[in-house]
Design goal:
Layout lengths: L13 E4 L9 H15 L4 E4 L12 H12 L23 H13 L3 E4 L3 H6 L5 E2 L3 E2 L21 E4 L6 E5 L3 E5 L1 H4 L3 E2 L9 H11 L4 E5 L3 H13 L6 E5 L2 E2 L15 H6 L4 H11 L28 E2 L2 H9 L3
Parallel strand pairs: 1-2, 10-11, 12-13
Antiparallel strand pairs: 3-6, 4-5, 6-9, 7-8
Helix pairs in contact: 1-9, 6-7
């Protein structure tokens, strides 16, 4: 990995399951969690369950416990988490606000942050702000001239942005392979707080991964571009990088990410309809190219057979007829 220290690879890995309770967990989420869990357990590692509820306007209070219940129903377990405790509490992001404040102070002391009062509309209307998929327009540096000692905008009307790297950043993803971008030019400076002063997603996940000793981050490949921003933060905080593992998404028949338009893909729906969790695990492994035929299986039964290198490339399409097969176990 060019220019960055990586975690030692000769020790048992530490991974995390990190559901966001902004709604119900669905089939696509389930497959990613199953792959992340198997990647760690197949090498004798530890799993941390963390609830990523920092996106407070979108969080559904009922979804926290439901996410925990869904993961346990699938047959996944963890060594630390909000329900069982552990050495790195708390495991719910909104209970870790003081830790994020300390990280923000460190970054401000390094003069890596600046206040930004731009609205979303301001940024979108900037002529020099081309769009990067999933991330909106590239920030046009409108407020980047601010320096320590300059006056601050009115409280509650600005966020803090991170000065992203102007040099090329490269890393090798365990599944997606070599990745390379110039963060400032291709992604732009990014917010690490909201205008309320609360920590934003990019900062919170890096702070938590460092504090919890996470050595492997396995998630959907729609978050690949976020990795460059997180690498900038890991580097600024002087911490080695975890291994990144970005797995292909599950999409609907129209090629778009799973949503209500694709029918009911909630795990709670399958539970209510009497589906067996082994059916969903079997579907997840089969759709990922890890078993030849669709068959019911428990996660623990596949630990010794798991091989990340065998993961099928490309998105997986799931359709309503597949939902019925899962429910009826008609493989």
């Amino acid at each position: 990995m060019e220019g960055f220290a990586s975690m030692p690879q000769n020790e048992p890995p530490v991974g995390r399951l990190a559901p966001s309770p902004t709604g119900a967990q669905h089939l696509g989420n389930a497959r990613t969690y199953i792959l992340a869990w198997l990647s760690i357990r197949s090498r004798g590692g530890r799993v941390v369950l963390r609830i990523e509820d920092i996106d407070s306007p979108r969080v559904k209070p009922w979804a926290v416990q439901q996410a925990i219940d869904d993961l346990a129903w699938l047959g996944l377990d963890w060594d630390e988490g909000p329900d069982i405790g552990g050495p790195h509490p708390p495991y719910i992001q909104t209970q870790r606000i003081d830790r994020y404040s300390a990280i923000l102070d460190r970054l401000r002391d390094q003069e890596l942050l600046y206040p930004c009062a731009c609205t979303r509309k301001d940024i979108e209307e900037a002529a020099s702000a081309p769009h990067e998929a999933h991330d909106g327009p590239v920030y046009p540096d409108t407020c980047a001239g601010w320096r320590v000692g300059d006056s601050l905008p009115e409280s509650g009307h600005f966020c803090w942005r991170f000065r992203s790297r102007r040099q090329r950043v490269s890393f090798v993803d365990r599944v997606a392979g070599p990745q390379s971008k110039v963060p400032h030019a291709e992604l732009g400076d990014f917010p690490v707080t909201r205008k309320t002063g609360e920590a934003a997603y990019q900062l919170a996940v890096v702070a938590d991964d460092i504090a919890m000793g996470i050595t492997e981050v396995c998630r959907g490949d729609d978050l690949l571009s976020s990795t460059f921003r997180q690498i900038d933060l890991f580097d600024a905080l002087g911490h080695p990088l975890p291994q990144f593992v970005h797995v292909p998404l599950v999409v609907g028949s129209d090629g778009r990410r799973l949503a209500k338009r694709h029918g009911d893909t909630r795990l709670s729906y399958f539970r209510e309809r009497g589906a067996r969790p082994e059916s969903i695990v079997g579907w997840a492994l089969w759709s990922a190219g890890l078993i030849e035929s669709w068959q019911p299986i428990q996660p623990q039964e596949f630990v010794e057979s798991f091989d990340l290198d065998a993961l099928a490339a490309g998105e997986t399409i799931v359709a309503p007829e597949d939902y019925e097969k899962i429910i009826d176990a008609s493989f």
